[in-house]
Fold these 3 entries.
Entry 1:
Amino acid sequence: MTVSKESQARLGEVAARVAGHVEQAMRLDIAEALQNCDPLLAEVLEYAIFGGGKRIRPLLTVLSSTICGRRDDQLYLLAAALEYLHVATLIHDDVIDHARTRRGRESVRNKYGMAVAILAGDWLHARSMHLIGQLTGPDGLSVFCRATGAMVDGEYLQIRHAGNLALTEEKYFAIIERKTASLIASTCMLGAMFAGGTSAQQQALGRYGQKVGVAFQVVDDLLDYLGNQKETGKKVGNDFLEGKITLPLIAALEKANEEEHKELHSLLTGDRSDVQSCERLRVLLDRLGGFRFARDRAESLVQEAVASLEMFITGDEQESYQLLVAIAGYILARKQ
Amino acid sequence: MTVSKESQARLGEVAARVAGHVEQAMRLDIAEALQNCDPLLAEVLEYAIFGGGKRIRPLLTVLSSTICGRRDDQLYLLAAALEYLHVATLIHDDVIDHARTRRGRESVRNKYGMAVAILAGDWLHARSMHLIGQLTGPDGLSVFCRATGAMVDGEYLQIRHAGNLALTEEKYFAIIERKTASLIASTCMLGAMFAGGTSAQQQALGRYGQKVGVAFQVVDDLLDYLGNQKETGKKVGNDFLEGKITLPLIAALEKANEEEHKELHSLLTGDRSDVQSCERLRVLLDRLGGFRFARDRAESLVQEAVASLEMFITGDEQESYQLLVAIAGYILARKQ
């Protein structure tokens, strides 16, 4: 699936405009919430929230609501709430992974210490839930909390299977469906709920978000091997270093003959911090078609995502539809 | 203020009964929420939630609702939600403090590692919010999220003032009002809101919870110096070791002459892990009336808490009133 240059340019414009609105909503909301609070809290939140970020999740919320017929200032606040949760998970992830940097800057954990980082994540978590409860009621909150629960569940599944070379493709997808996709699905669904969309519309957008979320993670896992550190802002080969078993490797293990199997095993159980091991692994994965396999899967998922939006093809909100399709295409094209 | 033996015994009975109901509610809720989830998540939650604990917060919720005229099975679920949040904060606190033990057992962090601990706290946080949104609606959720926000704010204030010997009594109370009392206040207030209590009833119970919460922390800080490790399950002198400035010390510094001031300073800026330093500090604090001062403050706060309940003296729920009074008295009597 390819997206026309025109569509891409239009997506870029809209994304920037929405990001501006959402950032404005976050600034106002934080200022209101932090009245009489400790200045350190304000400083840390400012640092964590306004340090870049693609703002894809809030864009999905805005488009999912718009395609169901509602766009107003409150919508940007809902989108802000979803971005808060995303930022909270990044802050906690960086504590868990002992990450020193995030988006080319020091991580919150590194700059302010673990205690401040964990607490800042908790604050954003609470604020996010508060806004979602206000804006979408108990039903929306329920969708959202199920998704955050699933996220934790996916992380546990991943932790339990770290270094497990027998991880199946099925389990791999089970992990990323929970860890990454469930929250993106809820991001879309909440937009539809906020707009008062029909149940069918909510389901369609939730399915779109689910597929896009899984594709996003598959591409993320590909970029971990193939990305350019300058573009991704992340060290290449990080998953290999941490013993995370991802799709290119699973597919390669499936195809490997006895000798190749042995070599893959020895690379993965040996000194993974050795740069040459990572390079050698990449060569093997490429030769065994692991990257191609993952790429194909991502493409199918994106097609399925787009197909989920069928009911909107003839709707009133042509532009929102086109933009959601363009986002799905962008997932495949992204380099960071 | 002293509470009769009879009242104490009755409180013990009711507390045990309510704890049983709340634990049952937590078991059912967790089982429902964890359908198809990773078994590790179930194991960790079981370990974290059912490892003892006084269940004071859920008891306060139950009594605050009952005194406003409502008690049913749903109430125990609301109380469970408040206990979840409490457990979540303990799990995150133990990560932050690198605590190896909790209630005489290994901490979650120690037993399962930091990643699992942070994520378990996040899961409980989300589940708690979900239930509170369902049971008390957006208004209840708003009260609750403000309280959790205040808790983080109080922790930040405390972090910023760690080791600050010039900490004033006013700042000390500002810290513990946010860190400890705001959540206990919301625990009571949500009980009243759940029962459909009048605004005056909600305010009265919120004020009661606020005062009880502050008194609770003052006594906690006293027990840190004077408690018996076997009874409290915590190492005595921990606050001193961590450089936390609490009320006995603030009061003693206020009273100290030049020489005593010097000695206090040298103890606090010297090797705090020295057992003899802690013992010497205790002697000084006692001589300067620091413990007496903190004790008096706790007693006044408990009296204020009880006074907040005035409107319920002549109400229909005499027993709930008596039990809330007994809890306030228990705060002063507790040894753990």
Entry 2:
Amino acid sequence: MLDAIIIGAGFSGLAAARILRQAGRSFLLLEARDRVGGRTHTRWLNTSQYLDVGGMWIGPTQDRMYALAREYGVEWYETYNQGQNILDLNQRIRTYKGLIPRMDVVSLINIDVVLKKLERLARNVDVRQPWAMPKAAQLDGQTLYDFTRRHCKTSDCFKVVRAGLETVFACELNEVSLLHALFYIRSGTNLNTLLSIQNGAQQHRLKGGMQTLAEKMAEPFRENLRLHHPVTRVVQNNQQIEVHGENFRFDAQRVIMAIPPPLISQIRFEPQLPLIKTQLLQKVSMGIVGKVMFVYEKPFWRETGFSGQVVADEHQPFQTFFDASPAGGEYGVLLAFCIANRARSFFALPEAERKSLALATTTRYFGPQAASPQHYADHCWADEPWSQGCYAGLYPTGAWTNFGHALAARTNRIHWAGTETSDIWYGYIEGAVRSGEREAHEVLQTLL
Amino acid sequence: MLDAIIIGAGFSGLAAARILRQAGRSFLLLEARDRVGGRTHTRWLNTSQYLDVGGMWIGPTQDRMYALAREYGVEWYETYNQGQNILDLNQRIRTYKGLIPRMDVVSLINIDVVLKKLERLARNVDVRQPWAMPKAAQLDGQTLYDFTRRHCKTSDCFKVVRAGLETVFACELNEVSLLHALFYIRSGTNLNTLLSIQNGAQQHRLKGGMQTLAEKMAEPFRENLRLHHPVTRVVQNNQQIEVHGENFRFDAQRVIMAIPPPLISQIRFEPQLPLIKTQLLQKVSMGIVGKVMFVYEKPFWRETGFSGQVVADEHQPFQTFFDASPAGGEYGVLLAFCIANRARSFFALPEAERKSLALATTTRYFGPQAASPQHYADHCWADEPWSQGCYAGLYPTGAWTNFGHALAARTNRIHWAGTETSDIWYGYIEGAVRSGEREAHEVLQTLL
């Protein structure tokens, strides 16, 4: 019998496996896909060009990610962040430098007030128990939309705040509880951190792509890894826990679950999971984000003084653009985020139409050179059966106050990891790693 | 190859099967449980006493239910509705007659204003497209809690309205979108109808229990019914659709799905269901209701002038009580509804503690005679793996405006029934029947 079985080889499962390996414990790491990395994935276009189609950024206070990159010898580099930004508002393109868009001053002040207000509220959250903050019932009884609509006094203010927050949460603002939004902000330090490149969550990328790190982490325990092993049933009793799939069964003392919430509901548990966990699982839904990427011979926009960054209102197919070129700018990559309702519309189109709409959009922003990329790629994470969405699970209204931390609560021999169980950097790769390490340490305690 | 396969033998599946049978079509009706009836279930205590542990009431405008009862020769009778009601507020019991509780006049007027306001808003909903009503974005961006909290000016008003609405929706008020609540109200005619016995959704019960009707409906096509047949995979192509379970496979031209939303996510569909449907399925969660029942030799409370009806605030374990005795009052049944957070707390207790808490509560209301029932029974529908909750699926904020009727939309050879796909009497048995009949007729069209 094994000491432990880890289900899911995303960053959370890999981080857990690493700890068990170091402790000399016997374990298996089961993964449904044909690769490790989960919601991160680096796609190689040829031997020298790659795209990070999943999670790709790290930033200050994501200490575990920097430590792992250092340990495995993966270098990081600065996200390109110079030159003019673009604001596409009411079908009109405006360019501006720095953090302050070219808009009427009332809307500008309004934006500042709304974001500061959110920030101030978030500061009151204790991430270990968001339901205990002052006025938690009211905050969890309303949506982020409700809050934003009430505090944005001009329509332009609302449009800009909305596109920004949609990019942070990967959902429509009416799909998430205000309390969850505050928790999420606090969990990732503060709102400014989540929105920023410089000193923010988008500051750095890994050379060779995020999956390079995942692969290197998996390297020492390749023989413990089983790809193409989707789990269908988990049975626990006083002696052990059994993990079943279509053609396999493994037994262990402990299981660490490190998969996204909607996938948990697809596994049969015997005995059934506690009511409070299954009910919460019915409520947590995944965000929906598509990444739309354009590869060019060079990051040509830099030469004409553009940063590659865009914020666009709901008339446009994509909320935001970033420069996602590799470290030295050997070739150019523009990355557009297509989120929530915009993703549901865009990805309902056939590929040829998506491509032509995407090229028309990017050409509007960056001129005719943008019309002919070497390569076009788009990917909607909600289409992936083994993720069902990105970036993370979202708590609707009522979930935190009625269910608390039920998602993370241990159920006998099953330990629950995954970024959605992390108090710190919930929804980010850093949160995944922290949760995996946390549960691995807990398992080691029980094995002593 | 069969003409059709119906998945789920609740009222929706039975109603569909009935139509296909009448049209002389070949079909199978697959059911995971060992019985028909779905979220209705009549439990026989002995040869003469029964309890309706699931859905049990019908009322005016539920025309299909009355027509079916008539057709199958099942009689109905009036829910007992005379005498004093009880209001348990701030640990104090007050009795009153009729519809108006004994409370301070400000709270009474406030209750009236809040319910009328809800009612007025609901009147604007077009049930075929709730997302198109005036201010739909605002209404779907807030919760029923938010609305109720804002319009209830006294704490007693809030307590009473809350207990009433929790009983209607089977959830905490912060778990449901205001727009969904309005749709639900309109779908069941109006709020007064949903709250009332007389001329309302609780007016009538079936003699012999609700399952009597389900059984009689199933009788003519017993040979088409397969119990213990949970479906795990559905594969469709240009020629046909295959329905797989652990030890079976059936092929047909069409499938009618008639199961609760969370169970749909547990089936593997090939090709995958459209994104908009799978995403909505991640968001729709089931209400949670437990029925707590006390069987006595006689409905003794009637003799002392009580109706058996109670409304109790959040300090008490149950929201509401009703007299659920059989037609002639041959024996007495008190029924308590235990809903949402109260259910999550109550059903986390061991059975002996539940029973003693329940008896203490009912004794407080109806005196020492209530302390010694012949029989005690409680049942939490969220514990049933083949329902996962009751009464119905709930739309959180953002679901109606972002996803519309995606739940009911046909996907090639799969037709979607179940009460959650019904515009009329959504969440009620009537809605289940109507949806099953609607999809059966649609299937017949495609078979012609």
Entry 3:
Amino acid sequence: MPKIGGMSNQERKTELYKLGEFRLIDRLTGSFGKLHETTIMGVGDDAAVVDVGSKYMVITTDLLLEGIHFDLTYFPLKHLGYKAVVVNLSDVYAMNATPTQITVSIGVSKRFGVEDLEELYAGVKMACERYGVDMVGGDTSSSMTGLTISITALGEVSKTDITYRRGAKANDLICVTGNLGAAYMGLQLLEREKRVFESSPGAKPKLEGNSYILERMLKPEVRKDTLQKLRDNKIKPTAMIDISDGLSSDLLHICKNSGVGCKIYADKIPIDSQTAQMAEEFGIEPLVAALNGGEDYELLFTIPLEEFQNVSKIDGIATIGHITAESSGANLISPAGDEIRLTAQGWNALAKE
Amino acid sequence: MPKIGGMSNQERKTELYKLGEFRLIDRLTGSFGKLHETTIMGVGDDAAVVDVGSKYMVITTDLLLEGIHFDLTYFPLKHLGYKAVVVNLSDVYAMNATPTQITVSIGVSKRFGVEDLEELYAGVKMACERYGVDMVGGDTSSSMTGLTISITALGEVSKTDITYRRGAKANDLICVTGNLGAAYMGLQLLEREKRVFESSPGAKPKLEGNSYILERMLKPEVRKDTLQKLRDNKIKPTAMIDISDGLSSDLLHICKNSGVGCKIYADKIPIDSQTAQMAEEFGIEPLVAALNGGEDYELLFTIPLEEFQNVSKIDGIATIGHITAESSGANLISPAGDEIRLTAQGWNALAKE
């Protein structure tokens, strides 16, 4: 029999941010069993893995909420639709899989008109075409406040190509695609100009000359061509993850899941000149933006040491360090040669407001 | 280059409720192409269908938003977790498929504590165990306001058993599982007692003696046993849909997708006595609750006329009418023999507040 009057008022509720996202997920999902032999991987990687017979299907989902994940003051709806798809596809690629289908659900308050949603879906469509995926369903509903977007992506991969977070071994090389910290500096710039705009609405935002970092924030891409080059060169990553929370946090995921340590070199971490320049303008150490910024959607992966020559030939991949024994911990080597312990200071989805 | 200052202020935005959910979906998704031969069915049925080789996989997703789809004043979190799973599995079963895996994403404001989410996930787990599905992933995030739940379900079905909305043919019988209108009357009762509680918080809610309709609202089940009996008796539905928006609306979906008309008989529509009694108490015609109430999660399906004897033997299935030529339209025959045109007056997810 339901009790009218709302949720039970426990004397002391445990606030969510105290646990943090990953411990909370462990606590909520740890007791769930596994009933199907076709469930190869559940919670705990970039995507779940289901055996569908001759191959694996991967499935991943992301929930994007207005005011938490995006700010429509500066985020064009078309870009938002595009990015919402790409962040899901990034998780599919991080399993070394090829995305095939997505579903798109939205909840919208009455502040949005049909034309706004057409903009959003134009971005979704553009991403579908760019990455070759079919939009096959979803759900559309009103919401009390703001915009909610929930996307689920499916992908396929051969049983031999599937790549988990857990496969890294001591002496493997640590590689990263593209460069890091750009989206974070793009976000800082947008937030600054928003504050300026709010205090004097007539002011012209100073965004010129920063289109690279802005685009990294507003319209990220997954390096699918780089993955294809790895495949063409018959290099199979031993472990892989996409960098969504920041290099530190995501590299620690690989270390934890693989039961290994790591050593990365500060001066090997790829940072674009526009990122470095904007970081300087903000008085932020560019390395800190690269380590903890998040939303890069670059791929972080490990390969056997003997592939060093092969991987060096591929454009757009930087080798930033190597895997060590678990007992050595996870460390960053500064340009001066000092060893600094890596800690996860990436984005906390449950941070206290 | 983004424009700081928010969404473009079109002079006249088209309000969403003016289009309605189904026309809006057509407008937003109509121009999307199909790139993969493995995409068998996209938008437009209970679930999307993907060819994975020896069988089909179906995928469906639902977004549940606090204040729109549920009211925590009377909805216990454990029941909510259970129901959120079941409404997705209902769509899987409506394709004649067996659910196998789900993902669960939640967005929560700081009003919720860890213990609240444990309640919610206890309900999710109970549904997973009851229906034999694995929870394989999801996403956890804070939200600015309220609780958001987004669930995606996967299922599998042989290529010969898959059942769409579009397969109904003239003279097919129209069947429905269980009974209709109960969840709607349960909702009316809860809403009434909520209003009483709000005007005098000390008042004891009068819910006794109505546990059946309350349970139909708060903890619905899918008639998977009835589906199994159809299979055991080698009866394959020609078309199927789950009743989420109300019998009228969902039967009209079958008619539209199949290019047929229908004739159903008012006195054949199954209504539980508790539903009828509560409808009377509210001054609602029980038939109206059954036709337009929604959230029944019963299965509505059509079978060839020659299966009449076979289907009559199965408990829990009512034959309520038959399919006609499209030109005859969709009609309800009243007990007095009058023909009344069926119209979709089910729940509009984009209704104006």
